[in-house]
Please model this.
Amino acid sequence: MRDDGGMLLETARLRLRRFTMDDVDRLVELDRDPEVMRYLTGGRPTPVAAVRDEHLPRLLGQYDRHPGLGRWAALDRVTDEFLGWLALDPADDGTEGELGYRLRRAAWGRGLATEGARALVRHAFDRVGVRRVWAQTMAVNDRSRAVMARAGLRYLRTFHLVFDDPIPGTEHGEVEYELCRADWPGVRQEWDAALRAR
Model:
């Protein structure tokens, strides 16, 4: 679990730690890449003031309200380089976690999102005790959907939202994936068996 340094967990290649207000510039830089933001804002960056005054203070407040859930800075385990973030954003009552991930483009294609997402799913069920982990993305976001599936979540539905300023691909809808507590033991057995077979 979390140590005094704000660490949540480690994987083979990642360390996940709490954000602090010192991370404003890192988050702004992450959201400045139009490819990173393509399926979120159509490539528009998040304003500095929004990160500093809204997003980050809200994230910091979640850590104590819902221990073990929240959004975590993802660092390279060897170099300590900031790679982006992974999240189990809590439902209002803390019984569910919304899986999320946003990594710098330099970290794409290396399986890091899947590695971090799987660690968070295991953490959510085995340590926090949530009843469900879920995630949403645009239907056309094939890379994100693949991470959800590799993290054990299963397709639940496609739905359509109305946006004032839709971005390309919105017309195909949004998708939701989920993994419920009752199905977690089977997924965990599959992962453990795959690890033993290596």
User: Anything to note?
Assistant: The longest helix spans residues 48-65. The chain has a mean pLDDT of 94. The two ends are 26 Å apart (CA to CA).
